[in-house]
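Contributing new records

If you add data, match the layout below exactly. Sequence lines come first and carry their own label; structure lines follow with theirs. Keep one chain per record. Anything else will be rejected by the validation script.
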Amino acid sequence: SDTPCLRRVKKLELDKVILGYGARVDPAKVGLSVVVYASVRLSEHSDDSTALFESTVAQLSAVTECSVVTGSHDYLLKIVAKDLVAYEQFIKKSLGNLKYVSNIETTVVLKQIFSHNVLPVDASPIE
């Protein structure tokens, strides 16, 4: 029979509190030595243009995160690449060619100090 702990984990999965499981992989050890954050501004903000942008970006394997942000840009993308030449090609052939993209500003990560994948939540029992 299921233990109380296993039942709790299954409930958290069913309630979509736990969204999935995965391994943390060192990007450099799999040939992805460049991490960049690209701030993207759209030229049009209709429901159709944002939906098209979001669905297209979701299919680009180099894009590991996509967030809607406030300020002078509309989206913040985290992108991994083999090197800066590969990132330049990605911008020219993929991201830069997307309909409604009017501006892309790139911030290259020189060194990542840390990355937490654990949320700061209270570990008390969930009702």
